[in-house]
């Protein structure tokens, strides 16, 4: 049904007519040009929850899955403030307050230059790491394109004091960078998203001689949307370099995220202590089979 709001001119016409005249003249009454029509919202397009988060476009809510990025970008002229924590191993028991006595923290800002281009800066406590990064979403899933594709690049600089064992130590040793091609598909029922991200991590300085400076990985992730405000997430990073699997335990994690009107809360369980791609993808993480799992959280506020 369509409702309309008429101007006084229309009402004056109706007031001077009898019921038979009104019935006979319905087909010839002309509506003024300024008549406002109010139509019901299409059922297939859910109403906007918040100016920054629209279910129809960004149904997954969070720009990250667990540790890694999704294909989503920050809307134009919007700013996200990130607070991320990773605590100690849960198997420390009550003596270590189940890992909560330890904490790595990362603070970051992400800004939408355009709807498909996001830039960000961050600082992580582990390794005193400063990061600058950008995301370019150059393909959006549609009837013409079966997947969404986003390019992600990040440069990390460590401000930590170098070990005395490193001689010589050059300023370039502080640099690491990560490059990802993030490809995602949302299935027809709009509940499940599957993502694959070929990744290259370059480290100017490695921990030991057997480790190459370049590390290739394939990160897989999924997000299952329970409703417009709650989703389940999971991810795993597969190390392509065959001989490096002897030295590095890949990153894995799972979580649940909540949207609460301008905020996103992600509660996660992961074997990674670090919070930047070049660190958690390029270091030895905890062994899940031994109970080396950490609790953490990502908190996002959009302005």
- For the record, the CATH architecture of the largest domain stands as Beta Barrel
Spatial arrangement of strands, main beta sheet: 3-4-5-6-7-8-9-10-11-12-13-14
Instruction: Determine the CATH topology of the largest domain.
Output: Porin
What is the string of SSEs from the N terminus onward?
EHHEEEEEEEEEEEEHE
Largest sheet, in brief, is:
12 strands, antiparallel, barrel
Percent of residues in helical segments? under 10%
Low-confidence segments, given as residue ranges, are 1-12, 25-60
Q: Helical element count?
A: 3
Q: Shape, please?
A: globular
Structural class: mainly beta
User: How confident is the prediction overall: mean pLDDT?
Assistant: 79
What's the CATH class of the largest domain, please?
Answer: Mainly Beta
Give the oligomer, counting copies of the same chain as homo and different chains as hetero. single chain
Domains (count): 2
Strand content: 35-45%
Under CATH, the homologous superfamily of the largest domain reads: monomeric porin ompg
The tally of strands reads 14
Describe this structure in words.
- The protein is mainly beta and 303 residues long.
- The chain folds into 2 domains: 3-38, no CATH class; 79-302, monomeric porin ompg (Porin).
- Helices cover 6% and strands 44% of the residues.
- It has a 12-stranded antiparallel β-barrel. Strands 1-2 form a two-stranded antiparallel ribbon.
- The radius of gyration is 26 Å and the shape is globular.
- The two termini are 37 Å apart.
- Residues 1-12 and 25-60 have low confidence and may be disordered.
